[in-house]
């Protein structure tokens, strides 16, 4: 049922929107990126000198990665739902445009920004862990493995799971397969 409603909404959106709407969506995407840059730029000195100590590379990543808009998409859907009821101040076309532009921004940021963040991290030299972070990561992996082994041993003593073929189970647990 929900899938049918989504397909119906997308079909109605594509019929209701003209080619200029797609151009406005791209322009809006550009403005959203500029707004993110303006906000981070305006607050950069505060973010740099108070709290965490944000540097310029991190500020670039904040601008580029940003939030993807789950809350804004749910709000746009509620506007669409409200516009579908008979109201003098909110026409159905407005709700359709809200969903189109909000969904379009979410889609573009997911596809464009999300898929290129890794490359931007690499270009900025931020994809390598420091020695301290690498040591912390290895320690965390070690502790997780120890807890997994402990839980694995406890399961062998379980009344219901004890008779299982534990050699086969161990083979399918990737963290344990090479022990």
Automatic annotation (TrEMBL):
InterPro entries: Cation/H_exchanger_CPA1. It comes from the Eukaryota. GO terms for biological process: regulation of intracellular pH; sodium ion import across plasma membrane. GO terms for cellular component: chloroplast envelope; plasma membrane. One of its GO terms (molecular function) is potassium:proton antiporter activity. The keyword Transcription regulation does not apply. Keywords: Ion transport, Membrane, Potassium, Potassium transport, Transmembrane, Transmembrane helix, Transport. The keyword Transmembrane helix applies. The chain crosses the membrane at residues 20-47, 97-121. This is Cation/H+ exchanger domain-containing protein.
């Amino acid at each position: 049922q929900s899938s049918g409603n989504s397909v119906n909404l997308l079909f109605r959106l594509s019929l209701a929107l003209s080619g200029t709407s797609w151009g406005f969506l791209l322009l809006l995407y550009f403005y959203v990126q500029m707004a993110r840059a303006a906000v981070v730029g305006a607050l950069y000195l505060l973010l740099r000198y108070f709290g965490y100590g944000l540097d310029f590379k991190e500020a670039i990543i904040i601008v580029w990665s940003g939030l993807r808009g789950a809350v804004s998409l749910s709000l746009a859907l509620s506007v669409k739902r409200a516009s579908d009821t008979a109201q003098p101040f909110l026409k159905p076309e407005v709700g359709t445009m809200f969903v189109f532009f909000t969904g379009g921004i979410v889609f573009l940021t997911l596809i464009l920004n999300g898929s290129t963040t890794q490359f931007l991290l690499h270009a900025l030299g931020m994809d390598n862990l420091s020695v301290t972070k690498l040591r912390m990561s290895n320690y965390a992996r070690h502790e997780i493995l120890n807890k997994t082994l402990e839980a694995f041993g406890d399961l062998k003593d379980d009344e219901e799971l004890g008779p299982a073929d534990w050699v086969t189970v161990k083979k399918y647990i990737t963290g344990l397969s090479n022990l």
